[in-house]
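TASK: fixed-backbone design
INPUT:
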């Protein structure tokens, strides 16, 4: 079968290669892959900024939707013909994190999903929502559960909360959809008026163009009558984290999800203490959280924002699109 494999760091080293067809072992499931959604993490992997010790060659792609076409001995969670999604943190089913969950992901330690077929432990799969297409469903596992884990599982989001969402990438837009569906007030920041208009169409109550308003935290305080917001999805890092802290209400929560600007940050500790701020890192969530998120997403009848769909042979172009900062998700159609 064909698979997109990384043979070294750099996008020029992402090659379409012929590899043996996989077969399921005990407790494993064979999945025919229909679609794979890209995450910013995929770009970091290719660039060598996620796991510098990555062993080559390795098939890329973590978030996939497919159909069960083979069952190994001892499996019980799925039947032939079931439509399934991969779970990003393949070993994390439930319970507290142990600190290495995001390492055991497809395309990193395990062979990824950018292939015609994929074999996974049945514990690393969930049922796909019936109301979504293959391309839409593939976007849920990493970005969707990360936003859900931050806002709901850890953040205990309430209907009267105000949530600040930075940018219009996959996690931020899922966060916007979740917060809006749960009755929270939402503020979205971006440097693009077109993307802010897209956020408004998804229910954003307020938008801020941070290029036009560099001190955007002051605008957030004005919108909240100087109170500050209850939760922030922080995706920028660097100096932006201090701005997020200033925009936060006392005892508010910042979930650090991304490092688009810089992986290091200087934080005013006195302000952090004074505000009793809760600052936590979020990389993903357990499988049970993904399943809870999917149930709510189905109940709400929501659809993810897909910026572009590429065919399997155009995977490199899909990665280049990802580098441009899409509005929503970039998806690769396989079969």
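OUTPUT:
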């Amino acid at each position: 079968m064909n698979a997109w494999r990384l043979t070294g760091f750099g996008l020029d080293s992402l090659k379409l290669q012929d590899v043996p067809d996989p077969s399921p072992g005990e407790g494993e499931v064979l999945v025919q892959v229909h679609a794979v959604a890209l995450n910013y993490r995929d770009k970091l992997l290719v660039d060598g900024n996620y796991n510098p010790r990555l062993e080559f060659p390795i098939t890329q792609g973590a978030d996939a939707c497919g159909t069960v076409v083979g069952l190994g001995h001892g499996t019980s969670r799925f039947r032939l013909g079931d439509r399934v999604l991969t779970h990003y943190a393949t070993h994390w089913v439930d319970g507290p994190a142990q600190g290495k969950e995001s390492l055991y992901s497809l395309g990193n330690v395990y062979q990824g999903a950018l292939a015609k077929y994929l074999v996974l432990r049945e514990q690393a799969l969930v049922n796909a929502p019936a109301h979504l297409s293959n391309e839409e469903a593939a976007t849920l596992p990493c970005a969707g559960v990360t936003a859900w884990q931050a806002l709901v599982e850890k953040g205990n989001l309430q209907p009267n909360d105000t949530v600040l969402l930075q940018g219009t990438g996959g996690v931020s837009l899922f966060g916007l959809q979740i917060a809006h569906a749960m009755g929270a007030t939402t503020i979205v920041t971006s440097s693009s008026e077109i993307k802010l208009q897209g956020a408004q169409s998804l229910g954003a109550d307020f938008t801020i163009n941070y290029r036009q308003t560099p001190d955007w935290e002051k605008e957030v305080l004005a919108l909240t009558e100087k109170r500050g917001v209850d939760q922030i999805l922080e995706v920028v890092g660097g100096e932006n984290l201090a701005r997020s802290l200033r925009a936060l209400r006392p005892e508010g929560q910042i979930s650090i999800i991304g490092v688009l600007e810089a992986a290091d940050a200087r934080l005013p500790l006195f302000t952090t203490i004074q505000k009793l701020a809760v600052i936590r890192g979020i990389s993903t969530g357990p499988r049970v959280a993904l399943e809870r998120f999917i149930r709510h997403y189905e109940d709400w009848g929501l659809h993810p924002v897909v910026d572009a769909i590429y065919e399997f042979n155009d995977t490199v172009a899909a990665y280049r699109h990802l580098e441009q900062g899409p509005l929503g998700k970039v998806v690769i159609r396989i079969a």
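COMMENT: The domain at 144-281 is CATH 3.40.50.720 (Rossmann fold).
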